[in-house]
């Protein structure tokens, strides 16, 4: 599945609730491309053996920029964290749902354990809820315990394990969060 | 986006320029515009669109993005960026050449031959583990030379292709060539076997050969003889020191044996298969101990070869698998493959299923090639186990559960052609049933042959088919009553309605329940559940198993009734009487296993409830979720199942939390259940292979039950520790303990997660 191919979640732990108050979180929009896309790519591809082409980033940012959030350093304006997601009607084995998908999540290593990734994910989920999402899904590497914990603290559960999902041969978990009861899911964009 | 065809063309052009010496990334750039494409398709007229393109481009602002509606995520992921070294295979570092300049005429020390061969074995095992040829075996320059251009005879396989060099090929080089030929031919057999069965490309194995033929043009016997002849030449040569000579000889003979084994393994009749694998395994100790004579030859491997391979992905790093883990993998492969062939010894349908389940449950799981061999032995050419029809197996299964000595399974019915004859009508409907059920039954066997994650995923998808199968079978059961003249059981104590046996739907229900149990149990194994889900999941497991237990009681009732009637009937021959005892004995066995399982599950469920009441298991805050919505996610595979009904969330919560019971009451209940389950497992361990329906895999079966037994005993210990801590703490106090939950693979049994109690001060 194409969707599967982009899966990656590098997340930070967020034990501390005291975020740096001055940190700025901004919603992505196209004007930011020139300033931030190179930094976004650098941050995401840091831990990847093979980088995504610019088209992968643009695929998400162009269509769902409002579901992508940046954490920015207050004084230097440097990129500290990023979440990239999408929201689409999904239909495979079961009735259609409006499914959010968190494609990429990363925090700069110097700023981990401060809840930045959690805040970014929450902003993405909040934006999805606003748009009537029925559920949110993502994949994360089996061994990436901080990421799994982050999502589970928010309410995700592991629905299945995906064998040798990544190019490096490691397996993944599919994490799922229902935002509505199954009977209330319409698969369509809400009002 | 990425056009594979043009990549290859431009690379070929680049290759032509190679001798000029590339100094920068643009060295290969041809400043003259390429010639206009020669389009020959009818109705297509080529035209120069430069001006129109430039004009259209001017309509856009700088930086403005345009997205074609057909540009999907798939395309975006497949897209490459030219001049990015990680994506663009033609992008060269300053001074880097496009291809390796390896001198194939150089002489190699015998020690270097050993080094290369051992490195190739590591690559071969890496391929078995699931990595592509391009990152493993195909990174060898010698293999590259052997396969490109594609040779059609052994004469065309010299590494050194200079004129006249064939006459003077040194023995060392010939040894390497013979080994490489044998290696590639072995891979060819394996690749074809895997491709012929059900597996998941890339996830399990990569069968992609990047447009290269794995010596399909050269006969097996030619290569085998070449290996043998080379072994003989080595034997009579005296240029090599004895130790090194022995090491080389072992490698040549090992390769010949491997090649022969994979050829024989494809047959599903040969008695010699297991012996072949054992013989192959016997080479390993010396292969291992003599690898110290090898001298690495890293320059004979190159990541650059991937540039020449037909592929849509950028070059990836060479996969490094250690010698130790490749020997381990090969050793297991030989061992597992020798066992897999035992599946051909058919005892009965239940033992077959047990065999496959236990074989696939081996740790680590048998490799993909061995799993596809197993599929081959079970299903090859739609003949089961080499010589049985699907009907044979299916009827065996029906006879040993719901239809012992039953007229519905009488083969003579098939010969009746008179339409109003009851026997003709029975045969007709049984054929309908078999046509419907065979697919699901065979799918079940095939599903169990997949990787662990896929087994659970597939079961989650196909379980609903079994629900439909049960319903369809129920209709047939009702229709069949008109022809079997089944007399219902009339028992006012059970029901005011007459009770019919519903044999076919009963059978489907039995297997559906088993699979629902496996879905839950494999969830434990794959660590799908969070700690605070365990009480609920073990409760659900016992609910399913108890349902199966009751269902077995029902089936047993009808079997026993038939048995009693048959014994009174002097016309029933003794072999037919035996069918009843067999069926009843299987049901008794399955019930016993069910009782131990639900008892244990009950015990753990209660234990985990107490642990969460004591806050020894904590639940995360989960601001975006609630318990009932998570329950829907967790139970999604079962939402569409009609029977047994999904327990509503509120009811489930009440049942699990048991608010009216005290912690000590719950622990007492947990302890009693564990004791009961322990007794059950103990009885099971004493069963013979025949009585436990595990003929052909008794040892594995016994180990599995013993592991359950150990887990059960350990649970009793945990319960006792928790109880003591609760008593010491008193009603309002906090017990001074904490809980550790072992990860999957670290406990006694992956399906039984037993918490460990650790005192805290």
TrEMBL record, chain A:
Gene Ontology BP term (one): regulation of protein localization
GO cellular component: NatC complex
Lineage top rank: taxon: Eukaryota
Alphabetical UniProt keywords: Acyltransferase, Transferase
Family: Belongs to the acetyltransferase family. MAK3 subfamily.
InterPro entries found in the cross-reference section: Acyl_CoA_acyltransferase, GNAT_dom, NAA30-like
GO molecular function terms noted in the UniProt entry: inositol hexakisphosphate binding; protein-N-terminal amino-acid acetyltransferase activity
Domain N-acetyltransferase: 21-180
Statement: the UniProt record of this protein carries the keyword GTP-binding: no
Organism: Mollisia scopiformis (Conifer needle endophyte fungus)
Designated name of the protein: Acyl-CoA N-acyltransferase
From TrEMBL, chain B:
Domain NAA35-like N-terminal: 63-223
UniProt domain NAA35-like TPR repeats: residue ranges: 340-718
Keywords, comma-separated and alphabetical: Cytoplasm
Primary subcellular site in the record, as a coarse category: cytoplasm
Coiled-coil residue spans: none
Gene Ontology CC, one term: NatC complex
UniProt superkingdom: Eukaryota
Location(s) in or outside the cell: Cytoplasm
Family stated for the protein in its record: Belongs to the MAK10 family.
Name the record gives this protein: Amino-acid N-acetyltransferas-like protein subunit Mak10
